[in-house]
Write a structure and sequence with these properties.
Structural class: alpha+beta
Shape: elongated
Strand content: 25-35%
Helix content: 25-40%
Number of strands: 25
């Protein structure tokens, strides 16, 4: 990543075109990142991850693994090969970890494999504090000593020992970090109040393919029986991205389009689908991995409260708000996961949205139209929400800070263009523009 260059890129959108056609959903970023971290546990063979999205965050995690001694390369466009056999370092460098929070996931597997780990406190999108104390308390319960020094977490353990760990919040990251560490611990670990997200199940299946013994993933109690080594060669396909799929669903709905999503995680989209149907969106389940989404008018105001899975996902909150800005009536969106997730509201207001924030609730009075305007993304999902608003706004919308968008969506504007969107990405640093689609 070169933020100084990416900051100068803009996405220009001419709104008003219904999206129509088919789009295939790529692998889940949030799953692929943790599977890459889990590869640290392997000592004796190469690991291949199919369906890995080509994203800025994936490249950062690859650099983190390389800094530890692993070899990482894409052998095909979405096929990632990881050779962890020569990992010999225990420190994940500050300049990488602070770029992306998911880099912190190497703490558990690195400690379990090497007996020690030094990982900088994480960075990422500024959507809230997201403390790591749940991760650290769980590792301490398994026998690790933890110190924080000069902004680094320093963990040591002659051996990790299974323990009963009660999470005070069903943190996805803590559940994943502790699952990975417990896979090589001596004895049995039980995680209570564990996160239930689909990505947890994907990690469990991946670890089991490596030789781990895990039960209960997807429930609030996960049992991990530690093994001596995880040495089986693994050829694994990353689950499809439910947040990307949900974003395309709203893109179809907000533009009054007709889009078929292929390779979609239909079951994992249920909480979003319920709310979209309440908003007068037509959703047809064709099979277990294919959905048809048809937007209709009027969009009806619908209240949403974000919750840990299986509730409405916080990562879809901003995109849903963009749609509610055009709804008939007044909707309320309550955010219970991240305290700073409404930073995009000022930008939607620039486009004519009527949104009022009180505490952790956004009250949205739907408007008949939005107007194109220059706007700036404040985080990954905010970037997607602004693009969605631009697709339906009158006139021209210019979205900047595209490095956020590129962290989580592969070739997003190109795939929208294939559905009929009129978009153009401009790189002012290169003094040229690349037209995408029909704009």
């Amino acid at each position: 990543m070169k933020p100084n260059t990416m900051n100068l890129e803009r996405l220009i959108i001419q709104g008003g075109t219904p999206l129509c056609g088919n789009v295939a959903i790529y692998g889940a970023k949030n799953s692929a990142l943790v599977l890459m971290a889990a590869a640290v546990l392997g000592k004796q063979d190469i690991i291949v991850l199919e369906n890995t999205p080509r994203l800025a965050d994936i490249e950062i995690m690859a650099d983190v693994l390389r800094s530890l001694g692993a070899k990482v390369r894409f052998t095909e466009h979405h096929t990632l090969e990881i050779d962890p056999r020569e990992i010999n370092k225990t420190m994940a460098p500050y300049e990488l970890v602070t770029k992306m929070r998911a880099s912190f996931f190497v703490l558990g597997p690195l400690l379990a494999r090497m007996g020690e780990a030094r990982v900088s406190l994480p960075g990422g999108c500024a959507i809230g504090s997201r403390p790591v104390d749940i991760h650290l308390k769980g590792l301490e319960a398994m026998g690790a000593t933890i110190e924080i020094e000069h902004g680094d977490v320093i963990a040591q353990a002659d051996k990790l020992v299974g323990a009963d760990i009660h999470l005070n919040f069903p943190s996805v990251g803590a559940t994943e970090n502790l699952m990975m560490a417990a896979s090589l611990a001596e004895g049995t670990t039980r995680l209570y109040n564990a996160a239930r997200e689909p990505e947890i199940i994907d990690l469990a299946n991946f670890l089991k393919a490596m030789g781990a013994k895990i039960e209960g993933a997807g429930s609030d109690t996960i049992i991990i029986e530690g093994v001596k080594d995880l040495k089986q060669p693994v050829y694994y396909s990353v689950m499809p991205d439910r947040i990307e799929a949900g974003t395309f669903m709203i893109a179809a709905a907000i533009t009054k389009g007709d889009v078929i999503l292929e390779r979609a995680p239909v079951h994992e989209l249920e909480s979003l689908s319920v709310k979209l149907r309440e908003a007068n969106v037509m959703i047809e389940t064709i099979d277990h991995q294919t959905l048809r989404v048809q937007g209709r008018r009027p969009i009806l105001a619908t209240d949403v409260r974000t919750m840990p899975h299986p509730g409405f996902p916080t990562d879809m909150q901003a995109q849903f708000a963009a749609m509610m800005a055009l709804a008939h009536g007044t909707s309320r969106i309550t955010e219970t996961v991240f305290e700073n997730r409404f930073m995009y509201v000022d930008e939607l207001q620039r486009m004519g949205a009527n949104i009022r924030i009180e505490g952790n609730t956004a009250t949205i009075v739907g408007q008949p139209r939005l107007s194109g305007a220059p706007v700036q993304a404040t985080d990954l999902r905010a970037a997607a929400a602004l693009v969605l608003a631009g697709l339906v706004a009158d006139g021209e919308t210019i979205v900047s800070n595209l490095f956020y968008l590129d962290r989580g969506y592969e070739a997003f504007e190109k795939r929208l263009a294939q559905l009929g969107a009129r978009t153009c990405r401009i790189s002012t640093s290169a003094q040229k523009s690349e037209a995408i689609g029909t704009y």
